[in-house]
């Protein structure tokens, strides 16, 4: 895993000190090596920080040139099928000077051009400069595991793994993109190609970009998308689905176990990580597994469930005790999450990866299982609502929805679900995980001339057209919540600790199987979730494992905001008359509701994180 950056300068030569500064801003992504490449014309510069995983020799250093010195690449990620591709390319006459997957990408581009993306099975973000065409070719993996920001302004083209690398240029005017801010307040993240700062974009997952330097022109296209749902539950029996799932997962795990550095599994004892452990133990004798305990909070303790799995499969298991979580860590994470993302589980994610990094350079987790196979609680609720309330008159449901806005305070249990009754579940999808709806965003921002209430419209454009409600819900979460919350959290937290995290469930073949082939009733019903994964678990896991357990990776934020340093810290940040941008009366109502037992802790967290980020980077409204 690595950090990449680059500049194309039309005003003159690339400023090498700036390029180095951008590179070293993301040093945490690659502490093992560094590199700079500048074109003969001096106007194009690429930079790289290396975390050595495959081919630890200097032959794997970057920026890397191909054997004919026509292409140069900076690459972040892993290509899990690189050995097969390398054999194909050798048979076609290509020459290799290293055993790294980066060189496979270079030669794949020479052989197939931009269509090479269709060949890659992996997680990646890269930029490749083609000197023969004078273009920069950039791409991001299908699920969005690896990040890539870019901007074209002031006669310069910039790109980087993290936004802070572009902000390293002191001339960059750091102003809030108000559409992106509206999305952040609504969802807790900034979706799609939007970026929290003006003049910057994110390259979305499964997209590629060609920047024509001669014409100063950008072309972006989507090279992969989720397949259509076959809805063929009557044509194949459940055993065949189960066998195909097992076959695909075995191959995905086997590929992701390849590493030239120590590797371990993050084992919670839940279905996803336990299945990965069961399969990995077939390939690796006494594979390393890690479980984290949180002293003083037994409700977050997964050690018994994890120990059951570890003992059954004879793994080299370690229980790591998480240190006390200090509120002071928030400032550090606000800097690292340089496009703010409001998920308080970034705290345990950071601390877990910090502890594991003492023993491994690569970790494997279970991310993606919930989106692919229907693991979230709100899927049950949506299906229950569709089944049991479909005969209620639409006018009555609209009245209930309006009542929730008027009589249910923000954070009160049931408010969001009552609001969702206004949606037609045959074609629409309620926004269940909303931090602030339009009405509350208006109150929150009423001290500003702010009319960019666009978040719901932006989300609606991303909802796929599907007849089945569950397909609509899981696909929308895969497109939005997974890449913008879960994968951002894992990438930024783990890379701050220079730990590469892999996710076998996000092998694109598993993704396609889950969304194209697996019938919805094999995923989730009104009373059950992850049905097909549970069937596989019954086959592979010990009988005593609890298949009903669903425990999110969380901190007791509600408890901490009752009194003490966390409450003081949040209050001082948000009620600072001189610095906070949010309406004080509305903030006070959130704290009051929290005292009364309403669930506003994540909302308050999103605002505190944003304020610390804005002040840390001196961002203007």
Describe the structure.
By secondary structure, the chain is an alpha+beta fold. The chain has three domains: 221 residues, 4-Layer Sandwich (Glutamine Phosphoribosylpyrophosphate, subunit 1, domain 1), CATH 3.60.20; 201 residues, HUPs (Rossmann fold, 3-Layer(aba) Sandwich), CATH 3.40.50; 66 residues, no CATH class. It is 40% helix and 15% strand. It contains 24 helices and 17 strands. A six-stranded antiparallel β-sheet has the order 2-3-1-9-8-10. A hairpin with a 2-residue loop joins strand 8 and strand 9. Helix 7 packs across helix 20, helix 10 crosses helix 18 and helix 17 packs parallel to helix 18. The longest helix is centred in the middle third of the chain and has 19 residues. It starts with a strand and ends in a 5-residue tail after the last helix.
Biggest β-sheet description: 6 strands, antiparallel
Parts with pLDDT < 50 across at least 5 consecutive residues? none
What general form does the structure show?
Answer: globular
CATH topology of the largest domain: Glutamine Phosphoribosylpyrophosphate, subunit 1, domain 1
Q: What is the overall pLDDT average?
A: 91
- What is the total tally of β strands? 17
Q: Give the termini separation.
A: 34 Å
Trace the largest sheet across and list its strands. Answer: 2-3-1-9-8-10
Provide the CATH superfamily of the largest domain.
Answer: Aminohydrolase, N-terminal nucleophile (Ntn) domain
Question: How much beta, percentage-wise?
Answer: 5-15%
The helix count comes to 24
Task: Tell me the structural class.
Answer: alpha+beta
Could you name the CATH class of the largest domain?
Alpha Beta
CATH architecture of the largest domain: 4-Layer Sandwich
Helix content: 25-40%
Number of separate domains: 3
